[in-house]
Amino acid sequence: MQEIINSLLGLDADNLTIWQMSLRAVVVYIAGLAMVRIGEKRFLGKSSAFDVLLSIIIGSVLSRAINGSAAFFPTLGASIILVAMHWLFAAIAFRNDNFATLIKGKERLLIRDGEIQWSAMRKSHIGERDLLGALRSQAKLTDVNKVQEARLERNGEISVIPRDGSSS
């Protein structure tokens, strides 16, 4: 059985055939899909830098399993370890705010009671036009004075809470 798997996946081959690379792609795709399911919705939903980094690393590592530039099964194993570590870090972050801030960052208050917090804007590298665009798209507001609070969230989105009774 081992010889059949070796032959099909080209595990001992110096040069992979199109069929071996194609079969590797299928196996890696299925394994990657299983890993994303184990990681639950974090990959696709709440995209913080924490999640994006794992996506980039997993893509890079798994591509090596397809093109044969790294050993096939150890590469899949390393990917599984990365997903498990991501899951563990997310679980710890859920229970510990300090750890969550360490790996995910923290939100910044950009507008408080209609006043732009310029220090936070500078630290976040957000221009006034970008902030106004977020007010329009997130809260349908064109006037900063009608905003109770706007924050740059940990996932990079700007959330807006209008003042009571505010509309553009």
From TrEMBL:
InterPro entries: DUF421, UPF0702_alpha/beta_dom_sf. Gene3D superfamilies: bsu07140 like domains. It is a multi-pass membrane protein. Residues 95-164 form the YetF C-terminal domain. The keyword Transmembrane helix applies. The keyword Cell membrane applies. The chain crosses the membrane at residues 16-36, 48-66, 72-94. Pfam families: DUF421. It is found in: Cell membrane. Keywords: Cell membrane, Membrane, Transmembrane, Transmembrane helix. Belongs to the UPF0702 family. This is DUF421 domain-containing protein. It comes from Floridaenema aerugineum BLCC-F46. The lineage of its organism: Bacteria, Bacillati, Cyanobacteriota, Cyanophyceae, Oscillatoriophycideae.
